[in-house]
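Ticket opened by: R.M.
Priority: normal
Category: complex prediction / small molecule

The reporter submitted a protein together with 6-O-phosphono-alpha-D-glucopyranose and asked that the result be attached to this ticket for the collaborator who will pick it up next week. Submitted input follows.
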Amino acid sequence: MASAPHPGFSPRPSTGGRHDLVVLANRLPVDHTVGADGRPSWRRSPGGLVTALHPIMKQRAAAWIGWHGRPGPAPAPFVHDGIHLHPLALTGDEVEGYYEGQANATIWPLYHDAVEQPAFDRAWQDHYRAVNRRFAEAAARAAAPGALVWVHDYHLQLVPGMLRQLRPDLRIGFFLHIPFPPVELFCRMPMRDEILHGLLGADLVGFQHAQGTRNFRALAAELLGAKTTDTAVWYEGREVTADTFPISIDFTGQQRLGIDPAVQARAAQIRRELGEPRTMILAVDRLDYTKGVECRLKAYRELLAEGRLDPAETALVQVAVPTRQEIGPYQALRERVECEVGRINGEHADIGRMPVHYLYQSFDQAELAALYLAADVMAVTPLRDGMNLVAKEYVATRTDGTGALVLSEFAGAAAELEQAWLVNPHDVDALKDAFVDAAFADPAEQRRRIEPMRSHLRRHDVDAWATGFLHRLEPAGADRTAAKVLRTADRWRAGSAGQHRGGVRAAERTVRPPQRHNVTG
Ligand code: G6P
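Result attached by the on-call engineer:
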């Protein structure tokens, strides 16, 4: 089959820059804030990716290219916490076409095989190409000869191919944070060959789950006629490695929060404020239609109605983190969820007691950790999810080995956290049984399940993920070995050990601006 062109793309050679590591992601790893004195500043965003990459990037004076989160002109490049930030401007039309449209109304629902139908629009596709080209050109300018460039996620799938044309000397890696769909689903995409061609511009393409890796190889063979082996795709005379790299969390930092006295005190306070329920069930999601919030609420309502859970003794805390609020299906989902919460509380609440506590807000890591510690049952039941780091954070926070994780089979995390109560989130009866089993599991059963998950995460933390990927991307024989990078990461972590504790003191809730949130996935 014919290989795909890049319409309208004529590569201009670039002389390159001075960074030997360049990261590209849709968003910069900083949030714009205004201090008490009214002065604007930048603060490092919460989230696994920047935590993982920060020590390595600082050591190498690396660059991060991304959008600063608002339409209009971008600030000039600046250095923040040792990382060189290169903000890219998007016009209002590009925010609509590239970000809200092609990325989040076409690719996101298609790749998640979601309840929402993907929408296809040729003008969005043009914006997607134009913005990907801008990213590729910025990387070509920033990268030193032979540098490593690591491109992240579904917003930037054309970048590796475009960048290879501009700078064939670079080592280019791509990691997809969301699921990669099977052949029959992906083939609906109008830009399907072009996207595959873009991804195959990389030297290393990484996926969260082995199924995604298999889908990618099958598609490369079927649509582009590439030859494939277990970990390689041969395309246009080059070998592209395709493999599975499940992303993880800062296990040590999360565990530290779990044993912090201030976090533990806040957890006890949360339980008191809830009226000391026998069972507290917690769910923490970006309010996205992939997260299965409606199925979960339906299961909970039926359990209360049937008396299998007693509304006087049970509290469900549903944290729904605001996200993508300009996009129609997200607005509609919010209305449906809030209607269902109102229905459950209307039918089962009493004066001073509510079976659902619904919080449409963002929280800092310390408050989330307190919620994890307070919760008897953690409900992570997405219909589809690349990984789901909330499930991993819950397990890491529960240092005493208690707690019960109900986890969707369709979250990437299920491939690793196989001792959880695994459940099909589309099956309301199965969800109900899992919630009841988890709620009434004795401490020995909880420990039997959670301890192996904790030791798995201890070994497979976010450092291991980042260094593992970069090690595979490095040219063979390079002296920057993964071991060296790991040692730097360890030194940095030891030096910043106090950071979380400092944050914990402010365990009170903070409402973050809607665009940014610390719950990924
Ligand atoms: C998912 C994606 C990320 C994205 C995040 C938040 O985790 O994989 O790339 O940053 O959602 O979405 P947003 O649209 O606010 O960036």
